[in-house]
Amino acid sequence: MKKFKIKELSIFFASLIFAGFIEYGCTNSNAKDEASFLIPQKATLSSNGKIITFPQNNPGLNVFKTTLVKKSSAVISVIAPGRVVATFSSAGANIGKIVLFDSPDITTLYSQYKQNEAIYKLATKNLARTKEMFINQAATEKDMNQAENDFATAHAAMVEMDVRLRAVGFNPEEIESISSNYAWIMADVPELQIHQIRKGESVKIKFDAYPDKVFTGKADAIGDILDPNTRTVKIRVIIPNIGGKFIPGMFAQVDFGNPISSAFILPLSAIVTVEEKNYLFVKTSPNVFERRQVVVANSDPEQLIVLSGIQDSDKVVTSGAMLLKGLSFGY
Fold first, then answer.
1. Torsion of Cα atoms, 267 then 268 then 273 then 279, to 10°
2. Residue 53: which H helix or E strand, with range?
3. Of the N and C termini of the chain, which has fewer Cβ atoms inside 10 Å?
4. In terms of pTM, does the model score above 0.85?
């Protein structure tokens, strides 16, 4: 058997005592950590789950962190993907305006519309001339019938092209009214954010082709049709295109920023969603929480703007809201 010297024995026992202190300290630390993550038990619900009451002095209440809210200025940010769908440029006095689209099918459709428009205008003039000749007995009834048939056919063909263009988002009358050196951008805005868009409002645009620049445009028209698959509405944006730097097919991000002076800014963790409705929880006393339905708008990827549903100095739960959601709605 190995014999230990006195000095070696002292070191050995000191090591054991030190290890014991470390183990005891770790155990106490873990116990404190576990206590800080206790989930409060035995909550009672009232008002159909809107009011959640916990026993007083429940140590698990530490899991809920709150923020005292105050109104402030903010900018509602509705950022939607878009692309350049048409450009308008001058081709000279004799030729007129050149319209380029991002789709060959729409280009063909518009070309057919212009051809039918020319035929319709010619048929209109021919009908008027034939009527005058018929009155003066310089044209026969057969000539008159032929002119009327040609007019009706041309009119029907032009109306068909007009309807087909409108169906894909292009109003022929608006195309004709646009001056040269402009571009149209079509942005897809989610259904829940469409109420924040105003026709005529100024917008900021970033193009993938020009990542370091921000351009200014205008919300020119709001679509009348909701896409049932993407749940988005098309917003047409017009932007000056002097120099032709924007070409059909270019991708962009359109920011429909809307400044407001009276709103509450909260982190995403404060908001819970149930059946497409937004809620948060307000701490009304040390052990009581109240569910509130709120109206929110996007601010940035980490925060939301609360437009209504809470008041100044409310204590809003920013950590633990998902636990309260489960209790409140019975999940």
1. 0
2. strand 51-53
3. N
4. no
